[in-house]
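Researcher: Next entry in the queue.
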Amino acid sequence: MKITDRNLFLRYAIPCGDVLVKRGDLKQETLDSVKEKVIRKEEVKEDLEELFPIAVRMCKLLAKKSGKEAIDPEVIRQYFWHEHARAVEWRAGIYPDLPKEECLTCPARVVKPGKTPLVETPEGEKHVKTDFVQGLKKDDWVIIHYDYIVEKISWEKAEELLEEQSRIKVPEKSKANISQETNL
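Model: Structure for this entry, 184 residues:
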């Protein structure tokens, strides 16, 4: 099944790459090469299912379930925004080395732009990488995965995702901080 936006898929998948490298499931050179291609917006010809088998297979299942013949951006976001947490939870039972909290994607608000911007997440503030997204401004909303900004999103989408994630598990202290500052 074809992935119509390989760059978007890889921006979400690459942050998981370090765990795969540590396990021996992916070579560091391959991960670095693919990451550089994504940053430079070059075509990535590598077999994505070979690099990120679980994510690709899960996206295939979601595409089929939705009656789609390809993995499009909607399917990619559906997986990483809504279904990824279940996959992480399941995989953490098999692989105790999986850093569950870092592996989850979440919305964040840019507090201080820069080379390594400071963002506020439901878990608190942290500095993140802008390898995949540039031109951020204060109060932009983004999706982060590990310590990477994957893409910019609208406030409305951030609000929806924060609400959904708060039903799953958001520590009350962090939830209160974001609610106060963003008028949720």
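Model: Strands lie at 2-3, 70-71, 106-112, 118-121, 124-127, 141-145, 148-153.
Researcher: Noted, moving on.
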